[in-house]
Amino acid sequence: MKQGKDNKPHIGIYGRRNAGKSSLINCLSGQNISIVSDLKGTTTDPVKRSYEILGYAPVIFIDTAGIDDEGDTGQLRVQKSLDTINIIDMAIIVISNNEFGAQERELIDKLNALKTPFFIIHNKSDITPLDNSLKTSIENEFKVPVIDFTTQNRDKVSLVFDTIKQIAPENTWTFGSLLGDIVEKNDIVLLITPIDSEAPQGRMILPQVQVLRDCLDNHCMAFVIQDTEVEEFFRRGIKPRLAITDSQVFHKVKDMIPKDVPLTSFSIVLARSKGDFANYLKGTPHISELKDGDKILMLESCSHHVSCEDIGRVKIPNGLRKFTGKELDFTFVAGFDGIPEPITDFAMVIQCGGCMVTRKQLMNRLKPAVDAGIPISNYGMTLAYLSGIFDKAVEVFRK
Q: Which fold has domain 10-172?
């Protein structure tokens, strides 16, 4: 399954084989979007299902294989199911026949380790109702709701949706302004968007679109120009409240922007909104401490065609080698593929802007490095540092 490419709340559905996970998704959505069978193990790989919960948000349900699967192949399926914990915003654990034991507890331990909220649905209550003592025991121990449910009718669907809204992390349903604490109504914001071989044909990249929309939401006057028009813009006597550029032309535009005009990048704006901004600030200066032979892990949130101007695979590695004068070894991981070496083998981790993933997915992706004390940065901050304007590029956010 291609994971982490949809910037919507992800809800993982977990449980034993034949607990009714796929039936639950069908019942909640009112559609037959998951294959259902009385045979154990019908769902073999995690599968994404889109659905919009009214009053909350469009979500992605992830239908997973049973956590009690058996045999060598079954264990691979279980591991694939557990791997999805890294990309979800919340979880629903489905049990039936009052079965709750070691497998559910192991799953809960993994969710708690990532501070991922969850609740429990006891399914097939039309066959075996939920035992009140089990319900009380689970609620007391884990402090989570337990809902007795049957997919034979939709009487409690609204209760399930209300519970999702109740436990959902706030940042999955409130989308705070990117610039609202920096700009005011009628401020002029300059958006510098170069067009090169990496620019999508006839479109703008997502971070540029998101920042432009945020300018409009804040009733700012946005000027969108290419880097080749920066000098002409300022010759016209216009002074913006803020200039935001594509990170890869920092080196080109930094001397064109008046010193009293704050300058940052789309990637840095996004990093403050959804990345581990505090650790980016702390980790980026480690670039100056890199040594010969150090391994750098480059994390990309999406897969894409690599060009000679690719920012993550070409420009940043070349820039780091030139800046440090060191022989550095780079490992590139796209999407949410596994990291091929222990995280402790790396001297530094550099993450892309993460425009295609959720904040939870991005934070979970970086957590092993943060926990291990490995410095982290992101594309925008790294390029700002290499261009000698790191402090200027983050100053507006520190204030």
A: Rossmann fold (3.40.50)
Q: Cβ neighbours of residue 2 under 8 Å, at least 6 residues apart?
A: 303, 335
The three-state secondary structure class of 142 is helix
Q: What are the pLDDT tens digits along the chain (399 aa)?
A: 333 345 688 999 999 999 999 999 999 988 665 555 555 555 556 888 888 888 888 899 999 999 998 888 888 889 999 999 988 999 999 999 999 999 999 999 999 999 999 999 999 999 999 999 999 999 999 999 999 999 998 899 999 999 999 998 876 655 578 999 999 999 999 999 988 666 667 778 888 999 999 999 999 999 999 999 999 999 999 999 999 999 889 989 999 999 999 999 999 998 898 889 999 999 999 999 999 999 999 998 865 444 445 888 999 999 999 999 999 999 999 887 789 999 999 999 999 888 778 888 889 999 999 999 999 999 999 999 999 999 999 999 987
Contact, 163 vs 215, CB < 8 A? Answer: no
- State in Å, rounded, how far the first CA of the chain is from the last one: 42
Count CB neighbours of 51 within 10 A.
16
Q: Which CATH architecture has domain 277-386?
A: 3-Layer(aba) Sandwich (3.40)
Owner of token pair 């290499």: 386
Residue ranges of the alpha helices (H) in the chain?
21-29, 71-83, 102-113, 132-142, 157-167, 206-217, 230-235, 250-253, 266-274, 277-283, 316-324, 359-371, 379-386, 390-398
Tell me how far apart the alpha carbons of residues 272 and 352 are, in angstroms, rounded to a whole number. Answer: 13
Where do you find CATH 3.40.50.300 in the chain? Answer: 10-172
Q: Which helix (H) or strand (E) holds 169?
A: none
| Separation CA 12–CA 27 (nearest Å) | 16
Gap between the Cα atoms of 59 and 44, Å rounded: 22
Domain 188-269 coded CATH 3.90.1150.10: no
What are the φ/ψ torsions at residue 109 (nearest 5 degrees)? Answer: -60, -40
C-alpha dihedral (98, 101, 103, 104), degrees to nearest 10: 60
The residue count of the chain comes to 399
Q: The pTM is what?
A: 0.73
Identify whether the C-beta of residue 247 lies closer than 8 Å to the C-beta of residue 205.
no
Dist CA 109 CA 360 (whole Å): 17
Token duo for residue 388: 């000698």
Q: In which residue are the tokens 């009733």 written?
A: 219
Residue with tokens 């920066």: 230
